[in-house]
Design a protein that fits this description.
This protein is of the alpha+beta class. The protein contains 21 helices and 26 strands. The protein folds into six domains: 227 residues, PAS domain (Beta-Lactamase), CATH 3.30.450.20; 48 residues; 104 residues, Beta-Lactamase (2-Layer Sandwich), CATH 3.30.450; 73 residues; 153 residues, Heat Shock Protein 90 (2-Layer Sandwich), CATH 3.30.565.10; 126 residues, Response regulator (Rossmann fold). This is Sensor protein FixL.
């Protein structure tokens, strides 16, 4: 039970729970009894219907027998045997009367010797003299079952002597048809285990009865059985009707019980409720003069406990305040990092011992001074503007970010430092805490490491070049003269030399990028031509891996300001990765798109994809998804880190998107040289060029239109399945989502996932929305009448509401 429920409510709920449990037990027991009763009644009905069916079947057969017997006793049939010349004529008239019974399919006349008599027809193929021998010899009629048909034989007697007879074949289906019309259940009629007719689904589980005709019936000798069944659903239907009526009556009976238990609960709980109200409102000491003995005892205990708690709390607060201040001061004084606090105007408030040792000042010398005294002149003049901008709500430069800065000691010497600044509130006033760490030793170590790597790399590259050249000459000139084993070993040595050379080149490039020594020769060049040339250069590599490379572009004049050699290096790296991580026989797709202010290049493979746990490490140095990848496909793990640095040097961005077991897409953007410069925006307006939008839907035309319209404002990622949307949301942060409605089968309903991620959503619809919408749905637009200007305004409002003030 909930802890905030009243005692009266709990008492009422307890009584009601017991009543409901009792009611459920009664309903359950009576339901079982009623279920058995209905089952017995249904079994009786089935038995009665089966018996009736057998009686009807017997009646139908006896009706046919009587018809044949009447025909055999008629004067027309007798004349047909006496009048030799006109007998056929008489019998035809007699047959007309007989065939009024629809179950009789054929009827024929035979003489006293069992010969077939007919002037117009050939003997029936089913007729033979043995079938009528008993009738001729005994002078009595007979019914027999042969070849799934009943045959009725009746003698024609003239003056006490059998002169011949009539044999009629009864159609089994026509005989049983009137019987089957009256059966209201699933049925199965079997005659002599060789002929069967059924109706309904006899395979459904249910109640089933089977009967055979009792002795004395005409159909008894022919092995006839009738099976009737009703599925359990019919039994449940009958039971459900009764259960509904009974449950409604029980619920009606509960209404007065609820009222009675509620009043009893209120009456019993009132003294405790009154006491609880006094305690809640803090009316101490609680008055116990008019209370019952038990309540008075409880109130006295509350009064005593309250006094003791107040005393202990006051003592603890004093001790904690003193202890907390001492602990905080001890931590600040003993920590190895320098900790400095300043107020909103940049004046130093505290200065710990580590800061005294780092800067050479005593705390008493700097407290109350501007923080600028700890910075060299160029940085000191900028700090005040940074702090003022942050307090006015503008973009942060240091606060909340952390960066490397330059500090100045009391003696004027400067040193590199790592600074982390965070904002806090003291008595409602903003304060800032800075943690400074001297990184002079780290900078020296990095410089030594860089110098060592560069020296070793250059020293290794010279002999490697000679070795590779020598091996190439040997394999080129003497390959036909060398033994196979020797040639394989030399080829392996040459391949390893090339791998080692690539590794050294990558190491040198990454060191140049980190140190800022990488030189770029920017010129106007065509990105389309660079991509085409890169694909041509990797054609042989793709064929070796049995991979097909395709290229699609919406422009052939993609002019950018770039270093074409470095861009070629980026394409070569991304293409080779896509090829070597694809399965043999697969395909790598390259696309180039003009987004207005930038060009977007995508390289997509259909391999195993990138494991989610590796995404955050993908662009770090020497990183590969699995150590086995190095042995299987080769590579140094530096290529993506180098490619990302090169793209960022071109004022672009390199990202990726991957779905496990479906491949990966690496895409980068670089600025369009021909795009007009962006207009200067008024100070304080929302600028959303870098916004990320997720499009969930299957309308490729709509996606293309959205990318064209928002190319200057946002980057749109399109997915067409719910699983892709989930992976996209785990890999990057989206500011807004555009979702097609109604949802297609593959997408289902993505709104719950967007709600969990708190991504503002705009629905683009084809029809009226008939579902409940979560809070993250900000607007809905009809696709047929979509106004992109209104959509842009809506996006701007959403971003303005969502974007908080950034920390410095």
């Amino acid at each position: 039970m909930s802890a905030n429920q009243s005692i009266s409510t709990r008492f009422s709920q307890l009584i009601l729970s017991l009543l409901v449990i009792f009611l459920l037990l009664v309903v359950g027991a009576t339901t079982v009894i009623e279920l058995f009763r209905i089952q017995r009644q249904l079994e009786q009905d089935l038995n009665a219907d089966a018996s009736n069916t057998l009686q009807l079947l017997n009646f139908q057969l006896s009706t046919q027998q009587r018809a044949v017997s009447r025909t055999a006793q008629s004067q027309l049939s007798i004349n047909s045997l006496i009048d030799i010349n006109g007998g056929g004529y008489y019998f035809e008239h007699a047959l007309e009367d007989l065939t009024l019974h629809t179950a009789i399919e054929e009827a024929h006349l035979f003489d006293y010797a069992g010969n077939f008599l007919s002037q117009t027809a050939q003997p029936a193929d089913w007729f033979n003299a043995l079938m009528v021998s008993n009738t001729l010899s005994m002078g009595t009629g007979e019914i027999m079952l042969q070849n799934d048909n009943f045959y009725i034989v009746e003698p024609i007697v003239y003056y006490g002597a059998v002169q011949g007879g009539i044999i009629a074949r009864v159609n089994m289906a026509a005989l049983t048809a009137p019987v089957l019309e009256s059966i209201g259940h699933n049925y199965q009629i079997v005659i002599n285990e060789s002929w069967m007719v059924s109706g309904g689904d006899m395979t459904k589980p249910g109640i089933q009865v089977s009967q055979q005709p009792p002795d004395g019936l005409m159909i008894s000798p022919f092995g006839i059985s009738v099976t009737l069944s009703e599925p359990y659903s019919a039994l449940l239907k009958e039971t459900l009707s009764w259960l509904t009526s009974f449950s409604i009556l029980a619920l009606i009976a509960l209404i007065p019980a609820v009222v009675i238990t509620r009043r009893l609960g209120n009456k019993m709980a009132w003294p405790i409720v009154a006491l609880a109200r006094e305690v809640k409102e803090g009316h101490y000491p609680i008055n116990t003069l008019q209370a019952d003995k038990e309540i008075a005892t409880l109130a006295d205990a509350f009064n005593q406990a309250t006094q003791e708690i107040n005393r202990i709390n006051e003592q603890n607060i004093k001790e904690e305040r003193l202890s907390g201040q001492s602990q905080v001061q001890a931590i600040v004084d003993t920590v190895v990092d320098s900790i400095i606090t300043i107020d909103a105007h940049g004046y130093i408030a505290t200065f710990n011992p580590a800061a005294e040792g780092l800067f050479g000042y005593r705390a008493t010398e700097v407290i109350g001074q501007k923080i600028n005294i700890l910075m060299p002149p160029p940085f000191a003049s900028e700090h005040d503007s940074y702090l003022e901008n942050f307090m006015n709500g503008k973009q942060a430069k240091i606060i909340g970010i952390g960066r490397e800065v330059v500090g100045m000691r009391k003696d004027g010497s400067i040193f590199p430092a790592e600074l982390s600044v965070s904002e806090m509130r003291v008595s409602g006033n903003p304060m800032f805490t800075g943690i400074i760490r001297d990184i002079t030793s780290r900078k020296k170590d990095e410089a030594m490491k860089n110098e060592f790597v560069a020296t070793v790399s250059h020293e290794l590259r010279t002999p490697l070049t000679s070795i590779r050249g020598a091996l190439g000459i040997i394999l080129g000139k003497f390959s036909g003269e060398l033994p196979d084993k020797t040639q394989k070993m030399l080829t392996l040595a040459l391949r390893n030399c090339e791998r080692l050379t690539l590794l050294i080149n990558d190491i040198l490039d990454i060191e140049k990028l980190e140190s800022g020594a990488m030189l770029y020769h920017f010129n106007r060049c065509n990105l389309y031509s660079i991509i085409v040339r890169s694909i041509e250069d990797n054609t042989g590599y793709a064929k070796h891996h049995q991979i097909t490379v395709t290229f699609e572009s919406d422009t052939e004049t993609a002019y950018i300001n770039a270093d074409s050699t470095r861009m070629q290096q980026v394409m070569a790296n991304l293409l080779s990765n896509a090829i070597k991580y694809s399965k043999p026989g697969g395909e790598v797709n390259v696309t180039l798109a003009n987004n207005g202010s930038s060009f977007r290049v995508e390289i997509t493979d259909h391999g195993a994809g990138i494991p989610p746990e590796f995404h955050e490490h993908l662009f770090t140095r020497f990183s590969q998804a699995d150590s086995s990848d190095t042995r299987r496909v080769g590579g140094t793990g530096l290529g993506l880190a180098i490619a990302k640095s090169i793209i960022e040097a071109h004022k672009g961005q390199l990202h990726f998107f991957s779905v496990p077991k479906q491949g990966a897409t690496f895409f980068f953007t670089v600025p369009n040289e021909n795009h007009a410069a962006e207009k200067i925006r008024p100070e304080g307006t929302i600028k959303f060029n870098a916004q990320q939008i997720l499009f969930i839907g299957t309308d490729d035309t709509l996606l293309a239109m959205l990318r064209t319209q928002f190319s200057h404002h946002a980057d749109i990622v399109g997915v067409d399945t719910l699983s892709q949307a989930e992976h996209a949301m785990t890999q990057q942060t989206f500011d807004v989502a555009f979702v097609e409605y109604p949802f297609v089968e593959a997408v289902k309903n993505p709104l719950d996932h967007l709600q969990n991620k708190q991504i503002p959503t705009v629905l683009l619809t084809d029809q009226e929305i008939d579902i409940s919408l979560p809070d993250i749905v900000m607007a809905c637009y009809e696709k047929q009448t979509l106004n992109f200007n209104r959509l842009k305004s809506e996006l701007r409002l959403i971003i303005k509401k969502k974007v908080p003030r950034k920390a410095m």
